[in-house]
Amino acid sequence: MSVLKTAEIENFRWHDMRHHFASKLVMAGVDLNTVRELLGHADIKMTLRYAHLVPEHKAKAVARLVEVA
pTM for this one? Predict the structure, then answer.
């Protein structure tokens, strides 16, 4: 039995790991140019397609405004 079946993971693509890697780096505060270099992208536009932020991360970013007010 494959590892994916055992973990009950469906519709997995190895490419998904690149998206996860990029998103985690951005949420950890790594600048986009460094993420671009790590992914080997020539164009920052491609990196932006990979670097998705989870809603909780966006909410924390907005909450920082309250801290400085």
Answer: 0.71
